[in-house]
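Quick one - first record:
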Amino acid sequence: IRRALGKFTSRVQDQLQNYLRELLHVRGVDTHTKGLFNFLVSREERLEFMRTVGDNAQYGEFVDRLFAFCWSSVERSLAGVRNELHKGMLPAIDAAVNSLLHSTSHLANLDGYSQFRDVIINARTNVQSAIETVSNWFQRPLDFARDPFDFDIALDVARKQITNCYVQTSISPVISVNVQNKIAGRFLDGMVEILFILLQNIIRHSGY
């Protein structure tokens, strides 16, 4: 059972690392060529956009169409992430669970095996539900209003971004935060960006 669980864990970790290292990145020409956030625009798409604008478009109309064009790329990428989770991650986890059950089925007569099997099946159901929840994260935001937040939240988000961006480099900062007041929601992105840059500089310039 220990050997089968080791193989199962390895398969699941390989899936997660594939998302962290390859898929959940902005696709570039030479880097992260498998990234699911694909904002590269073909010549045909640029020409089509130019045709929709026309020579006589007013500035406001141009801006509206430009934003619509950009949002279409975002929505296409988000749909790609959702599709990959449903057709890539979910079947891979199911296959790993089925392999685990099959590789241990010869132990069915042992005491406690039925409980072991039930725990695995329940875990698979929970993972399926979790993947569906994560999939729903990748939707175009419609409500941009944000509630006031604690400084700890911004710091936690920045640390997770660092973990995802620098998979090969782990840092364990000692943190002592004593910010009593909440921060206005509109500052969340900027605060996270500042903290991310600070942590990034630690990795790049502090000998890690």
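second record:
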Amino acid sequence: AIAGDLAKPAATYVAPSVGLDLPGAGRGGPKDLVRRQAWVDKQLARGKLTVEGRVALMADMARRHEEAAREAWIAAYEDYDRRFEEWFQAAGMGDEPAEPDLSAVDAGSDDAIFWYDRILAEEGSEPWRAEALAGRVQVLLHAGRPEGAGEDARLLVEQAPDSRHAPWAAVVTGDFYFQANNLMPAVEAYRLAVDGDDPVQSCYARYK
């Protein structure tokens, strides 16, 4: 599944997109993603924006690509469900329907990660590093890439232990280690979530 079994427990709290916390994110410019990317690149190339303004534009682009990837996922599985139902109603005549085509989901996820990576590489963007890492973890989970999500979540916990996303990231890290049957690191990660200030993640971590 695109969300991956790993993502399901941690999805009790979804990390907000970083663009939601930055003033001016998403204002102005075309809505079409291709045209908007060219517009954003032009704004960034002018060099007149503050660091916060630059990060806001990048975060907004990442969020838009995340949304496009989710919409593509929904469309792909709705199409699969329709084809499977038709095949089932025909008493299983013919070949079983092919799995959903998730190429558009992968493309949207890659584009979102590209923009989060730009935020992380932006000079002076340290105040938003935890937000960008959280966004990248979320995209990787939704794209069914638990290894990358687990590594980014671990980095978030190590580098920004006071972040509002740290308890959630600790759970993602614990789930990653648990799925890999690496139990001691999993316990340590869950313990961080238990001690955190997010009651939902703390409850889940205690259960694990």
